Amino acid sequence: MAIKFLKHKWQKMLFIFFLVVVGLILLLSLFINIYWSPILAAKVKSTVLTSSDSLYTAEFTDANLHIIRGEIDIYNITLKLDTAVYNRRKKNHLAPNNLVELNVKRIVLSHIHPFKLYFQHILDIGEISLQEPELNVSYQPNHTKDTVTKDNRTTWQKISKSLKSIHIDKISLSDVRLKYDDYSGNKLAVSELKEMNLTATDLLIDSATQADRSRLLYCRDIVAELNNYTGKTANGLYAYKIRSLRLSTHTSILNIEGLDLQPVKAEVFFNKSMHDRFKMHLDSAQLNHFDFVSYHKYRTLNASSMVLSNGSLAVFGNPRDNPVKTDKVKTFPNFGLQQLKADLDIDTIQANHINVSYTEFNKKSNLTGTIHFDNTSGTILNLTTNKLALQKNNICAVKLTSYFMNAGKLNVTFNFNLTDQNFPYSYKGSLESMNLPLVNPATMPLALIKINTGTLTRMDFDINANSKVSKGRVALLYKDLKVTVLKADTNNDRLKHMTIASLFANLLVIKHNNPDEDGDPARSLYVIYNRPQDSPFFNTIWHTLLTGIKTCAGYDDKMQQSVKAKVAGFAVKKQERMVKKAKRKERRAERQKKRELKKQQESAKADSVSH
Q1: Where in 39-158 does DSSP place strands (E)?
Q2: Which domain holds residue 187?
Q3: Residue 100 and residue 225: Cα distance in Å, rounded?
Q4: Residue 318 CB-half CA count within 13 A
Q5: Is residue 529 left, alpha or beta, with left meaning phi > 0 and alpha meaning psi from -120 to 50?
Q6: How many Cβ atoms from other residues are within 10 Å of residue 51's Cβ?
Q7: Which tens digit of pLDDT belongs to each residue from 89-104?
Q8: pTM to 2 decimals?
Q9: Tell me: the pLDDT tens digits for 30-79?
Q10: Residue where one domain finishes, among candidates 224, 251, 283
């Protein structure tokens, strides 16, 4: 076919012309590649230098332009900080808080338009792909707000002499290795991230976008994705894990899936720390209208709302006796917020389906007891440390609905004062009907009381508290309450019944109903609970309410002492009866002995007479 095709002269001429055209294109491509590489290098270097005000320099070993594929390959590119320029700016209080260094083995620029760049001074690129980039970011708090420089021109104004505009449809960074050095604390905190992907879309720098606040770094959207991130706290007591994280700058939404905070084993934790031990899991957390720019620049966490869904929070009270008796007011939420160095301002937090538990060790029983609040949902309003926000409103309001011991519906409202140094707070709520024996997992080890029967009709409480004392009213309405008093069996590591004490408690102390009769006024108690210095937040709430609960039921400290006195008196009388019985037995034995001795003497006398 080829021979027949080249049989005619015009066919040969056409074939030769085709070869010449192809050859010219190849030669032109080679020429353009050789000619454009230094032009491209100069453009990249000058653009980076100009746009960063000489703070950064860009270098690479080679750049190839493939005119047929419409592609540029840049090899071994580095973005480096000019330390002399940085130190000069830092001295003049003009240095940025975040510094960046970048190393990439290869950058591929696809769908380029080199003639636009040369003839029209427009840099137009379809996609830039960075393969396995290494990114080092360091944060140093040089200033807390944007500084004013002598050169206040926009990026476009700085590059407009050499470029009319820069447009890139997509920038993708895959398998990023990020090292983050944070110098904001007392000591350097280093984080290393893997399995991270970054995608930026529609980057446009021109006269129209130079003041467009809807864009971040001139991009329509920047999406960051992080998978399987793990780390440990500075003290080594907790390990944390994030299954996946996604941030979109266009929607200003930060999504976190699978967040876990796992403490070390209990014996290790409590040997090293006097703090309570926490364990937390969240299926998802979503931060809406997240101001990423403020967080990136100044560590200001500002968001309109946060949604927490499907998780658990377990708190374990520290059982150790602290010889120093440090004040555990630091466990109060409002104390923690006041001590938080970060600038935090979240208008609303919505919690959905969170299980909360509190576990405490009782040295009298040598056992742990747990109270839990299941399927907790509600809102937290005005969670903030921002000074301006606190001047407008210094109260953080928490409104929750939960199920106490997975049974009684609990509605409670907390109010925390975020500025007062006495750390005042209040809580008010109600607990609806439930079977009281369901509380035994808490009352048996912690209060040494087993509830045999009883039905809670309703419990209401209204408490005002601070770091020193809790005061308020507790009302417990119930029916048919019967209990068993317990004590620790140290030999068998369990609890055993105190039969006599239980009898006295049920007959003489415990009020079996509240109100006593239908139509009678219900009993309520005004509680005053002086917080021990080493009592943490959850422990303080529990013991404040427990004081009111026991008193409403008639089993307060005074009544407990009465029971103990009656039991002790009963024991004394029993001992006296046993002593009297023993003496009577002893006297009977002596009389019997005398009779036997007399009988023996009489028998001996009779024998002597007969002989």
Answers
A1: 56-59, 62-66, 71-81, 98-112, 122-131, 134-139
A2: 24-143+157-224
A3: 19
A4: 21
A5: beta
A6: 17
A7: 888 877 788 788 888 8
A8: 0.76
A9: 555 555 556 656 666 676 666 667 787 888 787 777 766 778 788 888 88
A10: 224
